[in-house]
Amino acid sequence: MAQPATPSPVIAPVSTAYRRYALWVLLIIYTLNFLDRQVVNILAEPIKRDLGLADWQLGMMTGLAFAIFYTVLGIPIARMAETKNRPYIIGISVAVWSAFTVVCGFAQNFWQLILARIGVGVGEAGCTPPAHSLISDYVPKEKRASAIAFYSIGTPLGTLAGMAMGGLVADAYGWRVAFMVAGAPGLLFALIAAFTLVEPRKKLAAEMAARASTQISFAAALAVLATKKTFWLVALAASIKAFIGYGYAPFIASFFFRVHGPEIAQLAGTFGLKSAGFLGLALGLINGTAGVIGAWLGGVLADRLGAKDLRAYVTVPAIASVVTIPIFVVAMSLDAPMAAIGLLSVNALLATLWYGPVYATAQSIVDPALRATASAVLLLIINLIGLGFGPLIVGLLSDILAGPVGLGEAQGVRWALIISATLGLGAFALFWAARKTIRDEMVS
Predict the structure, then answer these.
(1) Which of 22, 195, 236, 331 lies 20 to 30 Å from 130, alpha-carbon distance?
(2) How far apart are the first and last CA of the chain?
(3) Collapsing DSSP states into helix, strand and coil, what is residue 365?
(4) Does residue 258 contact residue 417 with C-beta atoms inside 8 Å?
(5) Residue 260, helix vs strand vs coil
(6) Burial readout 96-130 (b: 16 or more C-beta within 10 A, e: otherwise)
(7) Per-residue pLDDT reduced to its tens digit, 60-96
């Protein structure tokens, strides 16, 4: 079996000023990634009405159909990123997912929308693995969690923009136009990524050729990862966090419309808005801002506390996983919608603390030649379990509780969300177990 190459030094380091520029470009691209992925959530109710869908179909559309292609294609693209030009890979990917987001606006039935969402997933598969690998080459190890956490801020930022923009545009022009507006900016940033991001390996053709000639097989790469107990504990813990987060995302707007509909309409009217626009702004701005703070804070805490004890990389998300559960349950139980949204912002802050520590851990327990592959395998596990099944299972549970159990649509979605939140106990247990191995397995 081929062995991984010995750790190589950082090659072709970029200047501090360029590093800042590159991180901002990658952040914007990842924000667009999540904008295009999550805009469907604020549009779920009008899409459901127009196309006559059930909640399980909403879950399929927002989760499994997207996730299968997103996760599976992430592996071969990551293998390419180990030796090929990563900015080009990112640029092509941005162009593909942006174009298919626009196509979503032309869908006339459930299956057409499913195919368009599959196209979005195909494009987005080429974003994060090469981006994580690129960032790890751009920045020193001691700043890696903070840098990846900065990139990960794109998750709440994109969700914020998708909820706010999607709701306002849908109210004014309909959900189809909202998809078109969401996809357009990515076509510009595809060019920016391809032609302004620096490939650190580009200037060292000899090293690129050597790395390509000694690249280990995917089976051998998996064999290396198989020896990293920390990787699998963290991957499964993050999968549970993703299951909760992605399961929550498509139905939180539906929860407020169904449970607090009249109050939301009244509040929207005081601001001269319609319900979707008001709710999109409220959820996007309040929870999105909190999510940005949480993602940034998680990386900073991991780097600072991890400098003294590497176990901080898993301790921080472990504690946050437990604390979020009662906060979320109370938010779902309140009668006042704005109080519930306010409490959900605390939940959003805590729920995003894991991004930087988890992704930095995956980059730091393997040789640099395996970083894109490690990122892709991690994302495959996280997104197949979390994105693939989170929305689908929450949607099915909502349908079951609403219909056969007889709770009705409003209480069905409420209890489906509450039940899924309790899975955070499993994430805590897995993160905590990783404390036993992480200090021995950090290598680069």
Answers:
(1) 236
(2) 22
(3) coil
(4) no
(5) helix
(6) bbbbbbbbbbebeebeebbebbbbbbbbbbbbbbb
(7) 777 777 777 777 777 788 788 777 889 999 999 999 9
| pLDDT, tens only, 332-388 | 999 999 999 999 999 999 998 998 889 888 878 887 778 778 877 888 888 888 878
414 pLDDT exceeds 90? yes
Question: pLDDT category, 128, cuts 50, 70, 90?
Answer: confident
Q: Is the pTM value of this prediction over 0.85?
A: no
Look at residue 323 in the predicted model and tell me its pLDDT. 96
DSSP letter, residue 216:
P
User: For the chain, what is the largest distance between any 2 Cα atoms, rounded to a whole number of angstroms?
Assistant: 68
| Cα-trace Rg, the chain | 21
Cβ–Cβ < 8 Å for 266, 336: no
Q: Three-state SS for 10?
A: coil
Which domains, ranges and CATH numbers included, belong to the chain? 16-441 (1.20.1250.20)
Say what percent of the chain tops pLDDT 90: 37
- Residue 171 pLDDT class (50, 70, 90 cuts): confident
| Helix %, strand %, coil % of the chain (to 5) | 85, 0, 15
Chain position carrying tokens 């050729």: 209
Whether the Cβ atoms of residue 405 and residue 328 lie closer than 8 Å to each other: no
61 and 55 Cβ atoms separated by less than 8 Å: no
pLDDT reported for residue 302: 86
Name 274's Cβ contacts closer than 8 Å, sequence gap at least 6: 171, 268
Place of tokens 């404390």: 435
Q: With a cut of 80, say whether residue 206 has pLDDT above it.
A: no
Tokens describing residue 160: 């914020």
**Residue 178 and residue 39 in contact, taking contact as beta carbons nearer than 8 Å:** yes
Q: Which residues contact 155 (CB under 8 A, 6 or more apart)?
A: 30, 34, 291, 295, 352, 355
What gap in Å lies between CA 415 and CA 411, rounded to an integer? 6
Integer Cα distance of 65 and 246 in angstroms: 13
> Tokens 């008001």 label which residue?
278
Whether 183 and 98 have beta carbons less than 8 Å apart is answered as: yes
- Residue 274, classed as helix, strand or coil, is coil
Which amino acid type is present at position 16?
A: T
